[in-house]
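Q: Got one fold?
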Amino acid sequence: MVSQSAVVGIFLVALALVLTPGPNMLYLVSRSITQGRRAGVISLGGVAAGFGVYLTATNLGLTAIFTHVPQLYLALRIAGAGYLAWLAFQALRPGGLTVFAPAAMPPDSPRRLFTMGMMTNLLNPKVAVLYLSLIPQFERPDDGHVLAQGFILGAVQITVALTGNLLILLAAGTLAEFFATRPGWLRVQRYLMGSVLGVLALKIATDQTRPAGG
């Protein structure tokens, strides 16, 4: 069974990433503000489908590869830590990115909204790194079947990501107005998430756990 520490770890990673500006959030907020909440929710459905594709592909293929090629596991661990550190820098640097000043977007059909949401997620490097190098590090052979652990931890991440994005896109208009008149709060959000990502990057970079076997 998945350990409580693994669930908490994935929860924190997922929460930090969902609150860090990236392609998914930029697209969902822009779509929600310019075309309405319904369009944002449909787009979020596409994002969910993209998560499902990544979760299935990585869980079915990576466990065996990591077991036989531990050097690949090490390389992905370092890459994952480096990417989190880069995201932390982007959040903490002066003039860091904000998603609450989105560009206008032309209206799209529900089918295109769903497709664009899925493609935005599939092409999002943050999601690729999350599934390829972060989630596998919370899987432990002693906690039971590794494949099952992967799907459970992935489900935790997807739940956090979808819930967080849904709340943000539903409140996008209100949040945009709030942060436009209170830039100090936006800096607090950036500094908090940047600090969390920096700590996670350091933890992952120094973790000596071996890759999990099936």
The radius of gyration is 18 Å.
